[in-house]
Write a structure and sequence with these properties.
- There is one protein chain.
- By secondary structure, this protein is α/β, with parallel strands linked by helices.
- The protein has a 7-stranded mixed beta sheet, sandwiched between helices.
- It has one domain (about 35-199): Rossmann fold, CATH 3.40.50.
- Helix content is about 35%, strand content about 20%.
- It comes from Bradyrhizobium centrolobii.
- Keywords: Methyltransferase, RNA-binding, S-adenosyl-L-methionine, Transferase.
């Protein structure tokens, strides 16, 4: 039995996003956090850690095609509060089209201090990251979280997902509290969300 045209229309953007991700991953595998966009359950889990009642900007690192961005908006984050830091110019164009009220910054999230120095007008309420941290040296990861904490309001979360079994950033960082979600088995591949807050 053929699929109704409305169902085909709903599936097409997801399929297009998967093709975009796969193409980008083939071109630069270590720059991509995933081969496919984040699943809905993973995206919702990440968005859950962002306080909708706070006023500051919400910075998303490596939004790709916007799977987590959509979950943040569905959670109740005003799109005007979103600052989307994306390296890939093709994804930047797509994000500007899909989220015209958000501020899309084409830049290197691993040089976050330089990328955000003139962008944020207030401390961030959250930094939500889809970056492939485990593919980077530990010093790069630690520099990223240091720069993220410098941009965050006191106690605000740095939210990161990973497919790895181990945390992307050590749990034993001095002055940093860490929590983790349950493993999200309904994501392909299964993932876990880690949340870091500066004490």
């Amino acid at each position: 039995m053929p699929m109704p045209s409305s169902a085909r229309a709903l599936k097409k953007p997801r399929l297009d996003d998967e093709v975009r991700f796969l193409r980008s991953w083939i071109e630069k595998p270590l720059h991509m956090g995933a081969v496919m966009p984040s699943g809905k359950l993973l995206a919702r889990t990440m968005a859950h850690y962002v306080d909708v009642d706070s006023d500051g900007p919400v910075v998303e690192l490596g939004p790709g095609t916007g799977a987590i961005t959509s979950a943040l908006i569905e959670r109740g984050i005003d799109p005007k509060r979103l600052v989307l830091v994306e390296y890939n110019p093709g994804f930047c164009a797509l994000l500007r089209d899909r989220y015209p009220q958000a501020k899309v910054v084409q830049g290197d999230a691993y040089r976050l201090r330089d990328t955000l120095w003139n962008v944020l007008s207030a401390p961030a309420s959250a930094v939500v990251s889809g970056l492939p941290l485990v593919t980077k040296p530990m010093l790069t990861r630690l520099r990223l979280i240091r720069d993220a904490f410098a941009a965050l309001a006191p106690g605000a979360p740095f939210v990161q997902f990973t497919y790895a079994v181990v945390p992307p950033i050590p749990k034993s960082l001095p002055g940093v509290s860490t929590e983790a979600s349950e493993r999200i088995w309904m994501n392909l591949p299964p993932a876990r969300v880690w949340v870091y807050r500066k004490d």
